Amino acid sequence: MTAGADDESTTLSPDDAFAVLANETRFEIVRALWELYEPEDPANVVKFSNLYDADIGITFSELYEQVGYEDSGNFNYHLEQLTDHFVRRTESGYELTEAGFEVARSVVAGTVRERPRFDTVEIDERCPQCGAPVVVDYENHHVTASCSQCTGIWQDADGDDGVLFTFPFPPTGLSDRTPEEAFHAVLGYNLQRIRSFVDGVCPDCSGEVDESFDVCATHEPDDGGGCQHCHRQHRTEVAERCNRCKSVVRGPLTIAILTHPAVTAFYYDHGVDHRFASWETFRLAGAVEEAVLETDPVRIRVTVPCEGESLELAVDEERSVVDAVVEPFTGRN
Ligand SMILES: [Zn+2]
Ligand SMILES: [Zn+2]
Ligand SMILES: [Zn+2]
Known about the structure:
Blueprint: H1 14-21, H2 24-36, H3 42-48, H4 60-67, H5 72-82, E1 87-89, E2 94-96, H6 98-110, E3 121-126, E4 133-139, E5 142-147, E6 154-155, E7 161-168, H7 179-198, E8 209-215, E9 236-242, E10 248-251, H8 253-256, H9 261-269, H10 279-285, E11 289-295, E12 298-306, E13 309-316, E14 321-328
């Protein structure tokens, strides 16, 4: 992005930042600058490529007119309050800083004119467990995909099973998408985020991620419910946590392992063009098997089958792949 090392927008404390934005006029100024911003404007394209410092500010009168405020003296005061952190003064006018864009984008992503929703609807995808049609619904900013027949992979918060996944999705993601398109978009959006976590970069704040890897020593899952020791269906759990913004994701090793380059290469060699951030990850994960060979120190064998062969991965307590060999697939172990 274009924010440089001399960007003065880094110096405001969070308390001050909230205080500055807790005013309707200032908020409208940020929104107006965002509405008047044209990414396709040739000057913006040039500026983005950093060829030279193009001056593309919105003039005071343009901005004043867009916001539709009555008192120009008072308007100027509010504009000054935003300047440096959320708004930058250019030679010809004003523009949003990166912090200003972040505010505008999060508001745009979280609010749409109509409250989008859809009731439970069947889509043209099949449950990886049993082959029955998948149904999706959207509630409280989350998309849930479930199997119409079997117990799925998880229980939802109400203890109902059949769930294949529940992922957060901003309302903007539903605008102009059919439930089926939303289903694929929610997977792309969230699996990209998971991939970023697995790669050690928080997708929400760019902070450093701590990973913990837990293997239940005495795993006893009951039908449909969780294990009485770890309260999970799956024996291994990878948890990624950002220590800065407390963003967290958790999931079984059989999903996280699909980001490993040895797996991508194995699939590719068998004619499967696997993209992690897609529904294919869920379909393939259903066939991935894990076997805990030892618990102290932890040693897990993960078997990834494809086209009559299997990739056998040895995973240690750090979740590092310490060995990878391809063998003829001999079925369940
Ligand atoms: Zn099913
Ligand atoms: Zn974070
Ligand atoms: Zn357990």
